[in-house]
TrEMBL record:
Phylogenetic classification of the source organism: Bacteria, Thermotogati, Deinococcota, Deinococci, Deinococcales
Protein name in the entry: Class I SAM-dependent methyltransferase
Organism of provenance: Deinococcus rufus
Gene Ontology MF terms in the entry: methyltransferase activity
A GO BP entry: methylation
Domain of life: Bacteria
Amino acid sequence: MTAAPAARPLLPRAARVVLAGLTLAHVALRVWVRARPRPIPYGWAWLLENPWRRRYRDPGRLADACALKPADRVLEAGCGSGLFTPALAARAGHVTALDADPRYLAHAARRTAGAANVTAVHGDLAALPLPDASVDVVVLVSVLTEVPRPVDALRECARVLRPGGRIVVGEELFAPEYVRAGTVDAWARSAGLERVARQGGAWAYLHTYAPPHSWR
C-alpha cells in the first residue's frame, strides 16, 4: 500500500515569505503613522486614486451617503486630489475644497475646473479659514486620523456648522492611519458631538455626527 502524497501548501514558500514581509511592513507603518499623525504626502497621491479603492469608496456612492441637499454648503476638509469633490458638488449648492498642501489643491482645482460651485481654499483643520456657522455639512474622508489632535479638529469643524448641520467622517481599513469606529465615536463625544448615523462596516465606515439635539 503506497502512502498518500503530501498535501501541497496553499502558497509557495516564496509567496508566503513576501506576504509575511508585506504584512510586517504594513504593521510597522501603521504604528509609525499613528505615533506621528500627518497628511499623506503629495508623492503618494496614487494611493488615493487607485482603482481598487474605488471598489469600496466610489465617489458617487459616498456622495449619496452624505445625503446632501441642493442648497447645502459643504466643506470637504482635506480634499486631497479631489477624488470626491465633483460628486459632492453635483449634489450640493456649494463645495469648499480645503487642503493644507497647495499641490493637492491644484490637482483638485483641475479636476473641478468645469464646476462653478467649487472653491479651493488653502488651510487645515487646526484653524479653518471659515466663519462660524457657515456650512451645512463637513466631510472628512480619511483625514481625521491624520491630524495630531483629532478632538480639537472636530471642535473646529463644529464651529463652522450652521444649526442643524452635521459632520461626516469616513475611514478605511487599508490606510495606515486607520482607527476603529469606536475610537472616532469617543473623539466625537469628547468634542461635544453625538453620532446620528452609521454606514458601512469595519472595512470602510462612514459615520455622521452632530451637536446634541441639532439633528432632531
